[in-house]
Design a protein that fits this description.
Layout lengths: L2 H12 L1 H21 L8 H9 L26
Amino acid sequence: MPRQYIINIINTTVGSPFRFWVNRFVNKRHEKVKVKNNLDIEMDEETYNIFKKSQAVSTGKGTSYNMLKPNAKRRRTTK
């Protein structure tokens, strides 16, 4: 049996305790990779405080927002 099938069965029968258990291991792995590869963002304290107090969100449409639509197709130039 494929591993994903077994995972889906366990997830369906056990539910949120299983998801919590899996997420705990995934988060540990991500933390380990982040520390090993020095992927943390460094900010000075003043910038960090401004960032935490900010309530601004980006509302602009980026270049890839259309890719999330089910009928999205990449546009090609006339060339």
